[in-house]
Amino acid sequence: MKKSNQIRPVRQAILWGIISLVAYLALFLNQEFVTHYFAQGGVFAIAVVLTAMAFSFIHGAFASYLLETLGIRPLKKGVH
Amino acid sequence: MERRKKIMRWSLVALGTLFLLSIPSLGEAAGEALGPGDVVKQFIHLDALGAFYLIILGFLGGLISGFIGSGGAFVLTPGMMSLGAPAAIAVASNMCHKFPKSMVGAYKRYKYGQLDLKLGLFMAISAVIGVQVGIYVQKFIFAKWGAAGSNLYVSVAFVTILTIVGLYMLFDARKAIRAKSEDTTSRLAERIKRLSIPPMINFNVANTRVSFWIIVPLGLATGMLAATIAVGGFIGVPGMIYVLGVPPIMASATELVVAFLMGLTGTVTWALSGFVDIRMVLLMLAGSLIGVQLGAVGTTYVKEYMIKLVMATIMLIVSISRGIAIPTYLHQLGILQLDQGTIKLLNNTSFIIMCFALATGGVIVLGNMWKRKRELEAQDTVVAVGLNKT
Question: Where does the sequence pass through the membrane (chain A) (predicted)?
């Protein structure tokens, strides 16, 4: 946050933002289909875990780049 | 030496076996006693307002989690239920939201050098076993005094533990503020370090050496609390600080590993029966993945005692909230007489105070980050002016 001359990853933030938005839209536009299968349990438990993992990676990357773009970076590393 | 290795090996095997045996019913570790009527599989209709509400709750929960290592569950489960989700769906979805959030938070804090993975795994595995003990106690109380008795037990546990630990942490943080130091040291932890009951375990990142017989009971207590009030971190983090002597920033980071493993195993057990509402999970994640990373960055801006201060504040407000719910359970048990309007008012007040606890924590974290940022900018300006003059 303090070094304003650090490169801000605006492009990455936009790119991952679009990917994240597309992933969210894809799921919510087909929400009935998705909830129908996920509610069946059994082997679909793997799909539930994988979906949560995939979104945490996609949206997590977007969130990380977004914070860096806004200039929010760690100040000090390690326990002091 | 050979004998010590043998003890260590057998201790690990016993812990691993108990861990595997504990997984199947981990999904019950919810903090809410689910009666047979609560296990309804019905997915709610989500409108734009409900979605926005979940994103905001997720963000606040994530911010607090990233900062103090846990929190959020006490608001997210009732939050989903207030949208009309059945208890089992809310509990399952909360579990499924917890593990990706904790994973991202733990990864960030690992990158900042604040995480002791080995300590996290020891704590997490024993916490999973502790959950079973907690469930057993819950079931015993449920069988003896029914749902109201069980809820009363949960609330009394909530209020007692949170008030005692919260007040202690608050006074301890105040001591550090007054001494203008980074943090205080725990005398109990210093004494415990001298106890050498084999097997002893070295934790290189946390820079400590503690007996297996100290860590495992601490993990068990974390799990038991998770099964009782859904927020094991309220024992896990203070335990790591005061019993193991781990710095607060490292204790809160390590707690995220515990939250991850409990969330993952809990998700699998609930998802096998199809109770996870992935839409609510993803909406909460939309807010919490930003919040958890912001909270993680926040820990690098503040002094060590701030973790204690934020945690104590949240714990004390939450204990007030649960205290308000106690008369309702006394009414259900026939000990107290209340009308329906009063019960509804008490329940709503209790939930609003919980949201207030989360928001207060968020304000303290963001406020301190902002203050530190302004201080640094002011310092930079002074340096720049000084350089220009020379």
Answer: 12-30, 42-67
